[in-house]
Design a protein that fits this description.
InterPro entries: Haem_peroxidase, Peroxidase_pln, Peroxidases_AS, Peroxidases_heam-ligand_BS, Secretory_peroxidase
Cofactor: heme b; Ca(2+)
Structural class: mainly alpha
Strand order of the largest sheet: 1-2
Catalytic activity: 2 a phenolic donor + H2O2 = 2 a phenolic radical donor + 2 H2O
Radius of gyration: 19 Å
Strand content: under 5%
Organism: Zizania palustris (Northern wild rice)
Keywords: Calcium, Disulfide bond, Glycoprotein, Heme, Hydrogen peroxide, Iron, Metal-binding, Oxidoreductase, Peroxidase, Signal
Helix content: 40-55%
Bound molecules: protoporphyrin IX containing FE, 2-acetamido-2-deoxy-beta-D-glucopyranose
Length: 324
């Protein structure tokens, strides 16, 4: 296992170098200030309302950004609806019955187009900013979101199936998946910290309760077997960490106590001398460092292969491509 991780780490480093060389970096958090100074305050207002009405929505909007960015870059592709003539990403395995927040994105888009008196803010930028505002609304750190993404005119269900990591992955596959997106092993540990927020469905952690008991705390397993029986109850929810509506370092503390809900979560901490073990111990003990390093990793996630300049378009309706 140590050799596999060392190899994956090497691949991660190489991939990060390669992709940074090609990335069209977004660097401008003030992209909309001249054309629509009301854009960002409008997004924040709708996000705050949605999170106040349902705290979990903040988690869902954050995850939406992750699932957008990991499939051919942060280009709003996840927002496109399926039609009889078009298959998008919403029914790909990682998103089906799982990705949520699309109607909040619609509300933001309508409010932004009204505030801007026109269609100038891309759906991809809206998702990126809504993720940041969700983190902040739930007590997390703020950061400047680089802007200027444009929206894809395509989507790929196959890429969504293949590019988003699964909760069944072991550490080596998690690391190589992140490397394939130009993200490091440390980014993997940091961005997994997003699981300080939100919930998982039983279907994604059942094996932990009945088949992986060696790496799961006994009292947590016992408590979860009620809501997550061996058969049935697939969509019943459990929190990913003890405080699913508060952005904090509790996720890492849970891993130290073998209370990671998903197999992929607990893979980051095996209690030994592994690199990720050290990082988990460090962030569990240093909340300020977690908050500081997490936002840097978010900016890297947010900057994956954007469409810029005259590529793509600014969609009028986030659910469908413009006619032309
Ligand atoms: C490292 C690999 C990752 C895996 C295998 C993974 C897997 C999952 C799974 C299986 C769920 C539960 C979905 C459901 O049952 O419907 C989930 C929820 C969530 N994930 Fe991840 N995830 C990963 C990384 C990330 C990253 C990088 C972020 C954001 C930066 C993120 C943010 C979230 C959030 C906020 C939720 C809760 C969503 C809600 O309550 O609606 N995850 N993840
Ligand atoms: C993606 O995965 C889903 C669910 O497993 C499957 O039904 C679908 O055929 C897959 N799509 C592609 C293009 O591979
Ligand atoms: C339990 O895990 C083992 C090894 O990962 C696997 O072969 C087996 O199919 C699993 N059993 C169940 C009931 O999920």
């Amino acid at each position: 296992m140590a050799a596999a991780v060392a190899f994956a780490l090497m691949v991660a480093t190489m991939a990060a170098t390669a992709s940074n060389a090609n990335a069209q970096l977004l660097a401008d958090p003030y992209f909309y200030d001249a054309v629509c100074p009301e854009a960002l305050p409008t997004i924040r207002r709708v996000v705050e309302q949605a999170v106040a009405a349902e705290p979990r929505m903040g988690a869902s909007l954050l995850r939406l950004h992750f699932h957008d960015c990991f499939v051919n870059g942060c280009d709003g592709s996840i927002l496109l609806d399926d039609t009889p003539f078009f298959t998008g990403e919403k029914n790909a395995a990682p998103n089906m019955n799982s990705a949520r927040g699309f109607d909040v994105i619609d509300r933001i888009k309508d409010a932004v187009n009204a505030a801007c008196r026109g269609n100038v803010v891309s759906c991809a930028d809206i998702v990126a900013v809504a993720a940041r505002d969700s983190i902040v609304a739930l007590g997390g750190p703020s950061y400047h979101v680089p802007l200027g993404r444009r929206d894809a005119r395509t989507a790929s269900q196959a890429a969504a199936n293949n590019s988003i990591p699964a909760p069944t992955f072991d550490l080596g596959r998690l690391v190589s998946n992140f490397a394939s997106h130009g993200l490091s092993l440390q980014d993997l540990v940091l961005l997994s910290g997003a699981h300080t927020l939100g919930f998982s469905r039983c279907t994604n952690f059942r094996d932990r309760l009945y088949n992986e008991t060696a790496t799961l705390d006994g009292s947590l397993a016992a408590a979860l077997r009620g809501p997550c029986p061996q058969t049935g109850g697939d969509d019943n929810l459990a929190p990913l960490d003890p405080t699913p509506a508060r952005f904090d370092g509790g996720y890492y503390g849970s891993l130290l106590r073998a209370r990671g809900l998903l197999h992929s979560d607990q893979q980051l901490f095996a209690g030994g001398l592994g690199v990720t073990d050290g990082l988990v111990r460090f962030y569990a003990a240093n909340d300020d460092a977690f908050r500081r390093d997490f936002v840097e990793a978010m900016v890297r996630l947010s900057s994956l292969s954007p469409l810029t300049g005259s590529s793509g378009e600014v969609r009028v309706n986030c659910r469908k491509v413009n006619y032309n």
